[in-house]
Write a structure and sequence with these properties.
Helix content: 10-25%
Radius of gyration: 13 Å
CATH topology: Nucleoside Triphosphate Pyrophosphohydrolase
CATH architecture: Alpha-Beta Complex
Strand content: over 45%
CATH class: Alpha Beta
Number of domains: 1
Shape: globular
Distance between the termini: 34 Å
Largest sheet: 4 strands, mixed
CATH superfamily: Nucleoside Triphosphate Pyrophosphohydrolase
Strand order of the largest sheet: 5-1-7-6
Mean pLDDT: 94
Structural class: alpha+beta
Order of helices and strands: EEEEEHEEEH
Number of strands: 8
Length: 130
């Protein structure tokens, strides 16, 4: 089954916001904030909802960063993830929903983190830090 998801690149100076996943898949690993799109939910609405639930921030999508995939080799899931650059318009940063933690990281700091598979490559491909 293919599952549609959304993720946000939220930048502040030379850092991006990551969430540490509290649930499977990839519990304990760092990822972009985001989640599943509900049936008949516009992508922009899904992105704003998911980011708010995980980080406490209110965001507005600005531009498409790219499309990512997460495919389980055991064939239990296949996520197609629409990733957008966003603008923070309000809220207060705090982990929520299925996020154990939220934090800002620069590109060099990523090497010390346990990231979701493929995240570092996608961030480079999407020029997330430039």
């Amino acid at each position: 089954m293919i599952i549609l998801g959304v993720s946000a690149v939220i930048r502040e100076a030379d850092k991006i916001l990551l969430v540490r996943r509290g649930r499977e898949p990839f519990a304990g690993r760092w990822a972009l904030p985001g989640g599943k799109v509900r049936a008949f939910e516009p992508l922009a609405q899904a992105l704003s909802r998911e980011v708010s639930e995980e980080t406490g921030l209110i965001v507005v999508p600005q531009a498409l960063a790219g499309v990512a995939e997460a495919i389980d080799p055991r064939e239990t899931y296949h996520y197609v993830i629409v990733v957008s650059f966003t603008l923070v318009t309000g809220g207060e940063l705090s982990p929520g929903d299925d996020a154990d933690d939220v934090a800002w990281y620069s590109q060099p700091e990523l090497t010390d983190l346990s990231l979701t598979p493929g995240l570092e490559k996608y961030l480079n491909d999407f020029h997330a830090f430039t």
